[in-house]
Amino acid sequence: MGTGAITQYVDVAQLVLYLFWIFFAGLVYYLARENHREGYPMETDIPGGPKVGGWPVPSPKTYLLADGREVSVPDLKPDPHVFSAEPAHQYIGAPLVPVGDPMFAAVGPGAYARRRDEPDLDYEGHPRIVPMREMPKFDVASASTDPRGLPVVGADGVVGATVADIWIDHSENIVRYLEIEAPSPNGPRRALLPITFARVHRDRVAVKSVLGHQLDGARAAPAELRDAARGREDRCLLWRRHAVCDAGPPGAAAVSFAMEHEDEPVYGLPEVPPAGEHVIWQGSPDWKALAIRAFHVRKLVVYFALMLVLRATVTLADGGTALQALRDVALLMPLPLTGWRWCWRWLRLSARSTVYTLTNRRVVMRIGIVLTLSFNLPFRCIAAADMARAAARHRRHRAGLAGQDRIAYLQLWPHARPWHLRKPQPMLRCVPEPDAVAQLLAAQWSQLNGMAAPAGAAAAQPPAASPLPETALAAH
């Protein structure tokens, strides 16, 4: 027998390999058993339905916690919590549908993790999260906006509450909640709004997870807020779970659309209009007309078609067969399809992210897909305005104004008048109701400047073919 051999058929290396296999199998069993220490046995959502035992389930083990409490797991007692939901179908694992008010159903988008109703303490045994009124040594940094006293605005732009105080985690020196006060039929009610669901602006606190009229759903009474001050803040959270999908009948689509430009205090405007200014008209380009007028998709289709025809012609001229020509065209086809797809996505996003706003003092253009830009064009800075439409009976209108500002052509495109590179002119492309917009523009300009808007020079120009009207604004 050789070195290390025990018998003719068994040696040390073989025994070590067997021992490793036994150890590895035991390790897998141990990890699987400890993984089933919590959450098993599982109960189905059908009353009287089968249970999942989760073998192997370990025997209960008692843990001594830092606060002196003892916890034994697994706890084989049934969960006494009752959910305000019912299965959408009768099969096991069917999704739960909220019953009653979905904002309080605790399932679906409004689900949350239930934890023990005990204070979250710091290393000294004191509550970690407390209102700033009980921490006189803490204050808001001078460079930041103090939200106390600011109105709370919901996703629909409606003011529903006011910030009363700030709750801080003094162990980490960060803000956790905003204590808000909302009116109710039984008097003012207070609740805690997580700071992660709010955005603090200079003049308001914006909340995109609920609507403005839902802010009065705060269920926290003053006695509960006193408990929260001792560290039991969970019971006072606004709605306790911010179910975006259940915030209103339109669902998450309306809320997510509002969140695209959540920094805007007023839709389409970079700031709240000053006193005396109000919005008269708002609109966006029609993406189909924008595709023809700005992105020239028809010319793009003709260009790619000529490329394919040229490729087939070259193949046939070189003596190739019709089948070879079709093969070469098929190999080249991904190029025009990719270009068409990116062009289509670009124009759709461009039309979606653009908002034209006409107030009684200015024209505001919010443009840009990734980096949003807002251009304020006061009526006093507009030198000319033209309107072009498809039919020959329509005219262009121009009003001469004074101004010295210039905007780069590349910053404006596709919202710039074509071929005006040296003096770029902002352009309201493919807007609906062109006659009404032109009349409003002329009327507001005349009212602000105290004179009639001239249009004689524009009437002599031939109209351009356009699926939808466009208005060009020039400054000089």
Question: How is this structure best described in words?
Answer:
By secondary structure, the protein is α+β, with helices and mostly antiparallel strands. Among the domains are: 129-259, Photosynthetic Reaction Center, subunit H, domain 2 (Photosynthetic Reaction Center, Chain H, domain 2, Alpha-Beta Complex); 279-285 and 354-474, no CATH class; 288-346, no CATH class. The protein has 10 helices and 20 strands. The chain has helices at residues 12-35, 222-229, 252-259, 287-293, 297-317, 322-332, 334-353, 409-412, 434-449, 456-459, and strands at 42-43, 51-52, 61-64, 70-73, 85-87, 96-98, 129-131, 151-153, 159-169, 174-182, 189-194, 198-200, 205-207, 279-283, 355-359, 362-367, 373-378, 384-388, 427-428, 470-474. Strands 7, 8, 9, 10, 11, 12 and 13 form a 7-stranded mixed β-sheet that branches. A 4-stranded antiparallel β-sheet has the order 14-15-16-17. α5 (297-317) packs antiparallel against α6. It is flat and about 100 Å long. The relative contact order is 0.07.
Provide the CATH topology of the domain at 129-259.
Answer: Photosynthetic Reaction Center, Chain H, domain 2
Low-confidence stretches: 239-244, 249-259, 390-402, 456-469
CATH uppermost class of the domain at 129-259: Alpha Beta
Number of strands: 20
List the total number of helices. 10
Order of helices and strands: HEEEEEEEEEEEEEHHEHHHHEEEEHEHHE
